Amino acid sequence: MLSKLYFLSVVNMGFETDRLKKQITFIEELLCVICHNLVDNPVQHAECETLFCKDCIEDWLTRDNTCPVDRKNLTTEMLRPPPRISRKMLESLEIRCDFLSRGCTNYETYENIKEHEESCIFNPKWENDYTAHLKEKLDQQQVEGLSLRTELTQKNKELVDLKEQLAQKDMEVVNMKEGLAQKDREVVSLKERLERRVLVCSRRPRSPNVS
């Protein structure tokens, strides 16, 4: 039987079961008998086949050289990897990131959870780096924003210039239309004068031919 004093001295080395995305019926088979959490980096006693967290049992063996379950002699050399069925059951689990209280709601597979937590932006060890990263990103966005505002101002000026040019072209078109209308009126006037001239000439008596 493990002493209460020992439990008080053990840091929670496994994964708390309330962090599992889905509760499973076979969970008891995957709990470390020392920390009573889901085994982390599991190893198995070769004789009694009990699962332990590697850190839990190694810490235990610094205090006691017997198995905490069957009380038989136990050394680190007598530990072995868990059976394949246990590994498969563990690999099927999804575990919530340990930094939920800081804002991370991610679930990762049993194999990937430690890697995720190590690089998680909510990990306190990255807080200063992440704050610096956010400040650098903010500064960069402000510079980009200033550049965009400058470009927008230039584009607006170009747009104003284009509108002025367009207004000028519209005026030129109006003037050309007025000039064309004037030319059309002059052509009509010339046609009328020509028609009257032809009419006058046609009414004049013809001179007799001198033989």
Spatial strand order of the main sheet: 2-1-3
Determine the strand fraction and express it as a percent band.
Answer: 5-15%
Question: So what's the overall shape?
Answer: rod-shaped
Q: Helical stretch count?
A: 5
How far apart lie the N and C ends? 161 Å
Q: Which CATH C-level class of one domain is it?
A: Alpha Beta
CATH superfamily of one domain: Zinc/RING finger domain, C3HC4 (zinc finger)
Query: Might you state the CATH topology name of one domain?
Result: Herpes Virus-1
Which architecture of one domain would the CATH scheme give at its second level? 2-Layer Sandwich
Based on the structure, what is the oligomeric state of the protein chains?
Answer: single chain
Question: What is shown here, in short?
Answer:
The protein is mainly alpha-helical and 211 residues long. It contains 5 helices and 5 strands; from the N terminus they run H-E-E-H-E-H-E-E-H-H.
